[in-house]
Amino acid sequence: MNLSTSGLNLAADAAIDLQVHTIHSDGTWTPEELLDYLVREQFGLVAITDHDRADTAIALQQLAQAKHLPVLVAVEMTASWRGEMTDLLCFGFDPAQSTLHELAQDLLRRQQENTREVYENLHRKGYALPQPPAALADLLAQPSAQQPHALVALLKRQGYGQGEPSAGKIALEAGCAFATNELAVVVEAAHRSGAVCLIAHPGRTDGFVTYDVQLLDQVRQEAPLDGLEVYYPKHTPAQTAMYLEYAQRHHLLTSAGSDSHGSDKPPIKYRAELCRALLERVGTQMK
Questions:
Q1: Which of 16, 26, 111, 281 is deepest in the core (most CB within 10 A)?
Q2: pLDDT digits over 48-87, tens only?
Q3: Neighbours of 212 (CB within 10 A)
Q4: C-alpha distances in angstroms, 197 versus 108, 121, 233?
Q5: How far apart are CA 196 and CA 260, in angstroms?
Q6: Rounded CA separation 149/91 (Å)
Q7: Which residues, 6 or more positions from 187, have their beta carbon under 8 angstroms from its beta carbon?
Q8: pLDDT tier at 212 (50, 70, 90 boundaries)?
């Protein structure tokens, strides 16, 4: 298919954001609202990286062409390494035939199994939730990344978790968990799909692997990762400097993303020059 990025030639100071999310995963932007915002703000390129949604790439490319804004084919895959969560950004896969889509579909199936199990466990524990099948069907229809959040929101609507234990803790104690794929499996699938694969937000500390140089060395021994999301709002200046130095020393690609999920935390205007090697790798020319 004809991609919205075909023939794209970006200036070094063009505004880009290579990690944003919509209602197709756990964001509040609709794709139309997001692209309209980015057009108004004069972005030159964006990557919509909805969690485990490689299946939306074709529709997003069609919308991007209608809105006259280049959108890089991308997805953020929910992964785990050594038992801890670590998201992976995959850029430039073939939207018409993607091994990543197969992985994501299996993850959705496992997330739905977890949602059913948690719902049943909550009923057994005596929590008065709306009776299935309609209420449960509504949860199962949510994107995989949204289902744990939707369970917590349902508990709150029913009046649970206002104090201690919190609604999140109630859900966790009932077995709620994010389904993941092993990091090495995602990297292999990304490469088979024609994509490059980078560690998302390597410096986050809220439930994800927080990478230092030693851990980066170790994970790269287990899987041929292509790079790091160096520029990220929650990274400290020291982390950004460390990841940039590491990427340059090992000739890795660097990306920059806001992780915007809605208008309350809008996309960030990163300079395209920060991601030159990555953009050129996926077919974008740089002036």
A1: 16
A2: 999 999 999 999 999 999 999 999 999 999 999 999 999 9
A3: 13
A4: 20, 37, 20
A5: 21
A6: 26
A7: 88, 197, 223, 224, 225
A8: very high
Compute the distance between CA of residue 209 and CA of residue 269 in angstroms, rounded to an integer: 26
Cα separation values, 19 from 46, 48, 167, 269, Å: 8, 6, 28, 11
Is the distance from CB of 45 to CB of 8 less than 8 angstroms? yes
The type of residue at 229 is E
Quick check: 131 pLDDT over 80?
no
Q: Which pair of structure tokens corresponds to residue 145?
A: 């990344």
203 alpha carbon, distance to own chain's centre? 15
pLDDT-based confidence at residue 134 (cuts at 50, 70, 90): confident
E strand intervals along the chain: 9-10, 15-20, 45-48, 71-72, 74-77, 79-81, 84-85, 88-91, 181-182, 196-199, 227-231, 253-256, 270-271, 285-286
CA distances from 156 to 95, 145, 159, 264, 271 (A): 38, 19, 5, 22, 41
Stated length of the chain? 287
pLDDT tens readout for residues 12-55: 999 999 999 999 999 999 999 999 999 999 999 999 999 999 99
The amino acid at residue 238 is A
